[in-house]
Amino acid sequence: MRFISLFLISVSGVASSALAADIPSSEVPIANYGVVEDLRLNRADWSGFNAVVFAGGGFLNGDDSLGGDSFFRSGLVGGSVGYDHQFNQFVFGASVEGAFTNFRGNTSTGNTGQKSNWLGAATVRAGYDAGRFMPYVSAGVGFGNYKVTRKSDGASDENTHVGFVAGAGVEGRITDNVFARLDYKHYEFGSKTYSIPGWSSFSVDGKADIFSVGVGYRF
């Protein structure tokens, strides 16, 4: 019985070999899985002008010399324009952006209402080309509107604060020109003096943390 089994296996092997020999090599089906290089992230070109619209939210902390402090939350919508230039796998760029905000509330002392209607930044950044993605870090100058109002009679003063801003994010290509962006920025605003009739002048400073997602186009 064992001899018969071995004989059948041998015959099957010979028949298979003969059948394969009868099929032209050009007609033998070969699975095409590509080459290893095709599976890697190919370097992309991130150079050029770009424009982004974004939405998000954040937190704003304010402190004044009268002993009051505040913590506000707000959503935001905005846009940015910029330019990037790529050197090998490194990308360097600059951009300006602005956003409408709705930070508002009362200080801890309860005698003033404070709000911020917009934020802006002018930054430079450095990124790394990881194929369809580009992580980056940014830094520059931040701007923010701030208004203080006395609750008893509505008297107010308003300033634009200037300070340092730093952040990080990542961009991902959707098509060759369209991309998505996830971004974080931290603002450290310098102090400004406020003058409301009937009160001694006082100073206010603050900081903000902003998170946003956006869609952009690279020209």
Describe this structure in words.
The chain is mainly beta and 219 residues long. The protein has one domain: Porin, CATH 2.40.160.20. The protein has one helix and eight strands; from the N terminus they run H-E-E-E-E-E-E-E-E. The protein has one helix at residues 2-22, and strands spanning 48-64, 69-87, 90-106, 112-128, 133-150, 156-173, 178-194, 202-218. The chain has an eight-stranded antiparallel β-barrel with strand order 1-2-3-4-5-6-7-8. Strand 2 (69-87) and strand 3 (90-106) form a beta hairpin. The termini are far apart.
List the helices and strands and how they pair.
Blueprint lengths: L1 H21 L25 E17 L4 E19 L2 E17 L5 E17 L4 E18 L5 E18 L4 E17 L7 E17 L1
Task: Please summarize what this structure is.
Helices cover 10% and strands 64% of the residues. It has 219 residues and is mostly beta strands.
Largest sheet: 8 strands, antiparallel, barrel
Q: Which strand-content bin applies to the residues?
A: over 45%
Mean pLDDT: 85
Uncertain stretches of 5 or more adjacent residues: 1-21, 35-40
What would you call the structural class?
Answer: mainly beta
Taken from the alpha-carbon principal axes, the silhouette is elongated
The beta-strand count equals: 8
Write down the CATH class.
Mainly Beta
CATH topology name, in short, is Porin
What gap, in angstroms, lies between the N and C termini?
77 Å
Order of helices and strands: HEEEEEEEE
Number of domains: 1
Major β-sheet strand ordering = 1-2-3-4-5-6-7-8
- Quaternary form: single chain
CATH architecture grouping: Beta Barrel
How many whole angstroms does the radius of gyration measure?
A: 31 Å
**Helicity, in percent?**
under 10%
